[in-house]
Specification:
Number of strands: 5
Helix content: 55-70%
Number of domains: 2
Radius of gyration: 23 Å
CATH superfamily of the largest domain: Response regulator
Order of helices and strands: EHEHEHEHEHHHHH
Amino acid sequence: MTATEATVFLVDDDDAVRDALELLLDSVGISTASYPSAAAFLDHYDPGRPGCLVLDIRMPAMSGMELQAALAGESVNIPIIFLSGHGNVPMSAKAFRGGAVDFLEKPFDENVLLERIHEAIRLDRANREATARRTDACTRLATLTRREHEVMLLIVTGHANKEIATKLDLSHRTIETHRGRIMEKTAAQSLTELIEIALASGSHELK
């Protein structure tokens, strides 16, 4: 995903600010979608669209901080850059605790904003790739039976077939059979790939 494939979502109740930001981003080839309020953004936003959110912190009805909290409550992990004409340390600290990428005070340096936007787009790409890997890994592991999953965990944590057989009170031949089925079901081409799949799944049993 490049900057041209991503969308910068602009949410600010000041028409002049939104217009200026749209012109700036358009000048460097970044697509935008702008909204005059948090409610308008929520009505139209599709979490499947990659990008980042440039968000005014003080707005009527729903503030930027409230929108950040609402998105977090829906497990929407879009990188956020806050803009504020009335920022303060407690407010910026709260924004960062909520996962904000940056907190810029108006008037801001355009080059700094563009740099932060590119960072946010890269972060969003990395987050989406990690989510895709986790989803794929979980889908593969879901094909395993309970026993196969148990054997798989022992394999990826470094146990040899003989050790696994002793630990589970099974024959060495049975463990070899389970191992073959595990590799086939997960489509893992090597032990290293199986370990990567297990780690990508985020299984708490590996921690």
